[in-house]
Amino acid sequence: MPSVYIKTYGCQMNERDSEAVAAQLVAKGYTLAPSETVADVILLNTCSVRDLAEQKALRKMENLAADLRRDRPNVVLGFMGCMAQSRGQELIDRLPDVDLVLGTQKFHRAADCLDEILAGRAEKIVDVAEEEGSEATIREHLLNGNSQKSVTAFVSIMQGCNQYCTFCIVPYTRGEERSRGIPEIVAECRQLVAQGVKEITLLGQIVTSYGKREKRGKFLGRAGSPLPADGGASVLASRLVSSLAPPKDGGAHGVTRPAKSPFVQLLDAVHEIEGLERIRFTSPHPKGYGDDLIAAYARLPKLVESAHLPVQSGSNRVLKLMHRGYTRERYLGIIENLRHAKPEIGVSTDFIVGFPGETEDDFEQTLSLAREVEFDQAYIFKYSPRRDTPAAEMPDQVPQEVREERNQRLLEVINEIAKDKYRALVGRQMQILVEGPSRKNPARMTGRTRCNKIVVFDGSERHRGRLLDVKITRAGSFTLYGDPAMVNL
User: Fold this and answer.
1) Listed residue (68, 84, 96, 87) closest to 17, CA to CA
2) Which of 53, 110, 116, 276 has the most crowded Cβ, counting Cβ within 10 A?
3) What gap in Å lies between CA 412 and CA 55, rounded to an integer?
4) Which burial class, exposed, middle or buried, applies to 228 when counting CB atoms under 10 A from its CB (0-12, 13-18, 19+)?
5) How far is CA 268 from CA 226, 257, 261, 302, 346, in A?
């Protein structure tokens, strides 16, 4: 059977989609090529969040076409993902050597499309149409026969976004929000845990919007309706259905508490899975951090002390232009509540600098917010105009050199804060989940703390998948180093 090489650009959602497509292809008899130079099929899973990501993918495909078509004219070249969704036929018009363009709701059709092309039944395929139910069509995470099973796994709980931030193209490339059912998600998580996974990250464009814009019966399961045979998830689902009525507080006055949000109900359900050690989720939206979610950090031991909470700007004026739906004060209140619930919580964020109309005063407010919150880590992006988004047409576009300068200034503040926070952990004993060999030094092992700090230590393969207590001996740039004299060996 043909061999396939998949190169991924962009976010964790894209990484998860690539893994799922690879597993689907292997199940159909394809093999995975170690590099593009020997592959019969090369697929680029693309990102559209920033222009730089699109340009990288386009240049990569141009180079592949130029280099491979001379000597290997039968190699199949394809785009998948967000850029494929937004550009469609335009990609083949621009790059005639491309054979396949597959949109974000069509990942599950990758094998069928490749079969058609390789068999000569189709010369080129462009499929970017919407497809109902596509959020639940790809679930494979671990490749059959993989000798090194993953300790961690991503589980997609929803697709799409309804937020429509003025700078963002995601609602146009991923579509409207569509949530999977709790029983289905729990069944997938149980299967992964049975395969050795210890930590699951729940994924969505905005995970905290899970289930909010859909009929309750769809994602919770309807009383009296058949649910999947999932080794226990059906019982759990019926329990969740019965929990839809607002619970009593047990007090003498019979006052009722508000029902938990669908996302918190999902966290509760996944938390009950025996053998699962840790739960993470990304990416949320500040608007989704209600009291029930903050309380979940305090009452669910498997929900780790880590929150990636994108703020984008510290200026209320810019936040309004971005259509973010919260204020600086509201964001700071969320951080305060999270740290009250979990004092050791690690907090990371996203910033955009140079948004249209951003003044020096607006940017100074972003700097002051970064100093006030003292983030453990931050991802800083220079504003990049995306076509057909409102921000691209806004007046007062910030010059590129100003964006560059502000990016550097904010980066220096973030790095200085993070340096102090990481150094403060030296001498501490911290629990890590060992994930495998270090990428930079395979002779050493690496793990991650509950608050999402990477720890490198002298260990061996027998430690993979174990929870270990290590003493932190030194701190590097966003990396900690542990003493090999470990507890619980």
Assistant:
1) 84
2) 110
3) 27
4) middle
5) 22, 17, 11, 10, 21
Which amino acid, residue 368? Answer: S
Write the DSSP assignment of 346-379 as a string of letters. EEEEEEEES-TT--HHHHHHHHHHHHHHT-SEEE
**Residue recorded with tokens 């907090």:** 347
pLDDT digits (tens, 9 = 90+) for 276-300: 999 999 999 999 999 999 999 999 9
d(CA 368, CA 366): 5
Bridge partners (DSSP) of residue 200 are 153, 279
Give mean pLDDT, residues 80-97. 94
Strand order in the sheet with 306-308: 306-308, 346-353, 377-382
**Residue 238: cis peptide before it, omega within 30 degrees of 0:** no
User: What would the pLDDT profile of 290-326 be if each residue is shown by its tens digit?
Assistant: 999 999 999 999 999 999 999 999 999 999 999 999 9
Residue 454: helix, strand or coil by DSSP? strand
Spatial separation of the C-alpha atoms in residues 80 and 122, rounded to whole Å: 17
User: What b/e string do you get for 259-279 counting C-beta neighbours within 10 Å, with b at 16 or more?
Assistant: ebbbbbbbbbbbeebeebbbb
Model pTM?
A: 0.83
User: Which string of b and e fits 437-447 if b means at least 16 CB within 10 Å?
Assistant: bbeeeeebbbb
Question: pLDDT tens digits, residue range 338-360?
Answer: 999 999 999 999 999 999 999 99
Phi, psi torsion values for 164, nearest 5 degrees? 55, 55
pLDDT at position 391 over 90: yes
Q: Return the closest-CA partner of residue 80 out of 117, 39, 126, 149.
A: 126
Token pair for 257: 């508490």
**Count of CB atoms within 10 A of residue 457's CB?**
24
Residue of 106, 141, 200 whose CA lies nearest to 22: 141
DSSP letter (8 states) at residue 393: G
What is the DSSP track for 17-40?
A: HHHHHHHHHHHTT-EE-SSGGG-S
Q: Looking at this protein, which amino acid is placed at residue 420?
A: D
Confidence grade of residue 21 (pLDDT, cut at 50, 70, 90): very high
If DSSP codes are grouped into helix, strand and coil, which group holds residue 125? strand
